[in-house]
Amino acid sequence: MIIQETLEELMIQINTVRHLMISTGLQKGLNDYETLKYSEELDKLINKYQLVTWPCHPKTT
């Protein structure tokens, strides 16, 4: 299934960027430009994952 493969690829990207962010943060510090860039990229990937996986909320009137 294409959607499942896409979700798996997205999870791989999330985990890869998470590991890069953590290792960069430990080596260069949490306020380093590279660490912050990985953090921003991770935020975007997690947001994308949540948009795809969270069910739609019913509209309230």
From TrEMBL:
Single GO MF annotation: protein dimerization activity
One Pfam family recorded for the sequence: SpoOE-like
Record-linked SUPFAM superfamilies: BAS1536-like
Biological process (GO), any one: regulation of sporulation
Gene3D superfamilies linked: Helix-loop-helix DNA-binding domain (4.10.280.10)
Protein name as annotated: Aspartyl-phosphate phosphatase Spo0E family protein
